[in-house]
Amino acid sequence: MKRLGFMRGFIGMGMALAGALPALAEEAATTVTAAVAATPAPAAAASAVNSGDTAWVLVSTALVMLMTIPGLAFFYGGLVRKKNVLSVLMQCFFLMCAVSLQWVICGYSLSFGPDVKGLIGNLDWAMLKNVGLEPNADYAGTIPHQVFMIFQMMFAVITPGLIIGAFAERMKFSAFVVFMLLWSTIVYDPVCHWVWGMGGFVRKMGALDFAGGTVVHINAGVAALVAALVLGRRLGHPHKLSPPHNLPFAVMGAALLWFGWYGFNAGSALGANGLAGNAFVVTHVATAVAGLAWATMDVIFNRRMTVLGLISGAVAGLVAITPAAGFVTVGGAMGIGLGAGVICYLFVSFVKEKLGYDDALDAFGVHCVGGIWGALATGLWATTAVNSAGANGLFYGNPAQFIIQLKAVAITVAYSGVVSFVLLKLVDVVIGLRATEQSERIGLDLTDHRETGYTMLD
Q: What CA–CA distance (Å, rounded) separates 359 from 366?
C-alpha cells in the first residue's frame, strides 16, 4: 500500500509538473536573450569565415568523435559478457575508420550534395570535390565547408554504432562489416538528406530535428529492432544470461557520452552563439531530469535505485532532447526529460518483456522510443523565441507542427524498417549473419578476433 501510495504521489506530481510546463516555458521564453532569439538561419549568415565559430565546431567535432570511441564503446562494452567485450570495442573502432572513409568517398555528397528531386544528393561532392576551405552558405556561412563536412561525419559514424546494442554477442564480424557499410549508404545517407539536406523533402515539410532525433536515433533504433528480430535471441535468452560484466566501464561510457553530447547538440548551432548556449543548457537539464525520473521509477517498481538505471535514464534524456535542443526553453527541456525517463523505463521494463524480442542492450527501447518521444515533444514545446528559424509547437499555438513531426517520424520508421530488413536478409543469404552456436558459447572475442579482453591468472 505504501508503494502504491508513493506511485500515485509520483504520478500526481508528474501530472502537475506537466500541466505547469507550458506556463513555465512561456515565462522562460521571455527571458531568452536577444542574441538567441535573433540567431539567423545558417543560409542567412555572412560568407566570411569566423574564427570563433570555426573553433567551436572543431571542438564539437572532437566531442562527437569521443561519443563513439571511447564513449559508446565502453558503454556497450561494459554491458555485455566479458567474452564479448573486445568484439564490441572492435565494432565501434572499425566504424570510426570505415564510415569515415565512406563519408569522404560518397556519403557526404549523397547526404548534403546538390539535391536530386528531394530524395538524395548527387555525386558532385564525391571524394570531397568542391568541398574546400570557404564557407558553404546553404549550410554554415561562417565556417569552412570542410569543417561542416567533418562535423557531420561524426554523426554518420555514431549512428550505425547505436545499432550494435541490439545484436551484440551474436553477429559475425564479416556480416557486421558488410551490413554496416550498406546501411550507412542506403539508409543513413538518404534519411540525412531528407531531413537536413537542402531540398530534402522532409526538411521542406517543415520538420524540426536540431541534432539528430530522427536522422540518428529513430533511424538507428528501428534498424536495431529489425536486426534483433532477424537474428533471433541469444543462446539462453532470457534465462541464462549474465548481468553486465563491468558496470564501471558502462558508467564511464555513459559519462563520456554525456560529455560528448554537448558537442552533438550545442555544436549543431554551427557557431559560438546564443543558440549554442541554449542547446548546451537544455541538454544538461533534460539529461538530469531523465536520469532522476528513471531512478525514481526503479524505486517505485524495484524498491531501490540502481546504477544501471540511472545511467540508462541519462542516456534516454540525451536522446530525447537531441531534436529539440535548438528550439525549446528550459521548461520544455524539463518536460522532455521527464517523459524520456518514464516512457523509456516502462518500455524497457515491461513492453519489451511482453513482446519477447532480444534487444541485447536496449538500443530500440532507449534510442528509438526516446527519439520518437523527443521528436514529438519538439512539436509540443518548440518556440521561435529560442530560434527564429524554427517554428512554434502545440503549446505555443501551432498544433500543425506536432502533425509535421509525427509524419517525419512515420516516414523514418517505415523507410529504415523496411530497407534494414531487406539488407539484413541479403547479407544473410550471401555470407550469413549469425555466429555459430560454438562461437557464441566461446565468445566472439576469441572466435572472431583471436584475442581476449582479460588475462586470467591462476
A: 10
The tens digit of pLDDT for each residue in 137-188 reads: 999 999 999 999 999 999 999 999 999 999 999 999 999 999 999 999 999 9
Radius of gyration of the chain from its Cα atoms, rounded to whole angstroms: 21
The 10s digit of each residue's pLDDT in 54-111 is 999 999 999 999 999 999 999 999 999 999 999 999 999 999 999 999 999 999 999 9
The sign of the CA dihedral 112, 116, 119, 122 is negative
Q: With contact defined as beta carbons under 8 Å apart, do 382 and 392 qualify?
A: yes
Which pLDDT belongs to residue 36? Answer: 38
**3 state SS of 256:** helix
Reduce the DSSP state of residue 136 to 3 states and report it.
strand
Domain boundaries, the chain: 50-449
448 vs 450: CA distance, rounded Å: 6
Cβ atoms 121, 191 nearer than 8 A? no
Reply yes or no on whether the pLDDT at 441 is more than 90: yes
CA distances 67 to 95, 226, 255, 262, Å, are 12, 24, 10, 10
The hierarchical CATH code for the domain 50-449 is 1.10.3430.10
Q: Cα 10 to the chain's mean position, in Å?
A: 28
Residues in CB range of 88: below 8 A, 6 or more apart: 73, 76, 77, 80, 164, 168
Closest CA to 269 of 332, 319, 211: 211
Does the N-terminal peptide bond of residue 40 adopt cis geometry, omega within 30 degrees of 0?
Answer: no
Question: What's the predicted TM-score (pTM) here?
Answer: 0.89
Peptide bond just before 70 cis, omega within 30 deg = yes
Q: How confident is the model at residue 456 (pLDDT cuts 50, 70, 90)?
A: low
Angle at 390 between CA 412 and CA 20, to 5 degrees: 95
pLDDT in tens, 184-237: 999 999 999 999 999 999 999 999 999 999 999 999 999 999 999 999 999 988
Task: Copy the grid coordinates of residue 25.
Answer: 516555458
d(CA 114, CA 154): 21
| Interatomic CA distance for residues 386 and 113, integer angstroms | 29
Could you give the C-alpha distances from 255 to 284, 310, 314, in angstroms and in order?
12, 11, 9
Model confidence at 328: pLDDT above 90: yes
Q: Is the peptide bond before 244 cis (omega within 30 degrees of 0)?
A: no
Where are the extended beta strands (E) located within 217-310?
none
Q: How many angstroms separate the CA atoms of 192 and 202, rounded?
A: 10
User: In this structure, are residues 363 and 80 in contact, taking their beta carbons and an 8 Å threshold?
Assistant: no
Which residues pair with residue 433 across a beta bridge? none
Neighbours of 40 (CB within 10 A): 15
